[in-house]
Specification:
Elements: H1 15-37, E1 39-41, E2 47-49, E3 66-69, E4 74-78, H2 83-93, E5 100-108, E6 122-131, H3 139-163, E7 178-181, H4 182-188, H5 194-205, E8 207-211, E9 231-243, E10 248-258, H6 261-270, H7 280-286, E11 293-299, H8 300-308, H9 323-331
């Protein structure tokens, strides 16, 4: 969808009360998430060395923003996510299984397919990663972690509603998570696109986790793109909430149990990315030198939209928009930051 503002839309909070509320909800959610998943805050890079293999290739076609460093005689890339960096960081910190890290991740995705109510070239999210044992690499552990994240979001919403009574008019998030595989979703709605399937199922169940994203389904196409070198395509997924204001599902988190040497070896071959095997990160992982982990990203701006009842992501983050978006929002009295 392109930018679309609901008829008679009015923000629950003024432009500055929105800023105060964003600061509060971020602190509340971080603390709750860290407690539930046993995570510790760390600092993270805005950019990494080019050709290190650390940057996220996303779907494989997005161009990272890159630049040269005058006195380092090398080039750097602005991160597109921290999926690989976090795993290396956990080894550096010497953490043990059951303990993990979280951080603020800021990224620029210059090749974002569309700018609309939910998509921006500026990405801000909580990135987290935790070391696990070999016996934790299963769907039960994945589902338990998903439920902890959803519980933290629901707890945060409850506290925000008690502090800002005007938010009480927004629907409460559904705590119960409905799990479905990407293949089951395709079988259920064979005539729909992946996005249409997500909307149909999430509208019915409100809070959903779609399992198994990245590998081709029986139709010959994957549900969505996912790089072959961080999530295990059999043990990953997306958390979605139904958002009445925009009449669509909002993806809040992409996450999963990460590849071990065997699954990375398999996925690199399937994706035609065998050339990555000699990159430092990939070589270390294939040699079993990095810990087994689970991790993901949780969109800060999307969480703010969801909990504060905003119609456009530009109401909760400062970015650059096309002229059509700016005009549409101005006519509707929507304040883009």
């Amino acid at each position: 969808m392109k930018t679309k503002i609901p008829q008679n839309y009015q923000s629950c909070l003024s432009i500055y009360d929105t800023q105060k509320a964003i600061g509060l909800l971020k602190r509340l959610f971080e603390d709750d998430l860290a407690a539930k998943l046993n995570l510790y805050r760390v600092s993270a890079p805005l950019f990494v060395a080019e050709n290190s293999g650390i940057n996220d290739d996303l779907n494989g076609y997005e161009r990272p923003v890159s630049f040269d460093i005058l006195h380092a005689e090398r080039r750097a890339e602005v991160v597109q996510s921290l999926a690989k960096w976090k795993r290396v960081a956990l080894k550096r910190y010497g953490f043990f299984p059951g303990r993990g890290i979280y951080t603020d991740m800021d990224a620029i995705r210059r090749d974002e397919d569309v700018l609309d109510n939910l998509h921006s070239v500026y990405v801000d999210q909580w990135d987290w990663e935790k070391i696990i044992l070999p016996e934790n690499r299963n769907l039960d552990y994945l589902k338990s972690t998903v439920m902890d994240i959803v519980a933290a979001l629901c707890d945060t919403q409850n506290t925000m509603r008690s502090i800002y009574p005007q938010l009480m008019k927004l629907p409460a998030l559904e705590r119960n998570v409905t799990f479905i595989t990407a293949q089951e979703l395709e079988d259920r709605y064979p005539g729909m696109t992946p996005k249409e399937r997500e909307n149909a199922f999430t509208k019915e169940h409100k809070t959903v986790f779609i399992i198994g994203i990245g590998e081709k389904l029986r139709s010959g196409k994957p549900h969505d793109g996912r790089a072959p070198d961080y999530d295990d395509w059999q043990l990953n997924g997306d958390i979605l909430f139904w958002y009445d204001l925009l009449d669509c599902a909002i993806e809040i988190s992409s996450m999963g149990i990460r590849v071990d040497p065997a699954s990375m070896d398999r996925q690199l071959t399937i994706a035609g990315c065998d050339n990555r095997r000699e990159l430092p990160y990939h070589k270390a992982l294939l040699n079993g030198e990095l810990p087994l982990t689970i991790g993901g990203g949780i969109g800060q701006s999307r969480v703010s939209m969801l909990l504060l009842g905003k119609a456009h992501i530009g109401e909760v983050q400062a970015s650059v928009w096309d002229e059509e978006t700016e005009t549409t929002c101005a006519r509707a009295g929507v304040n883009l930051l």
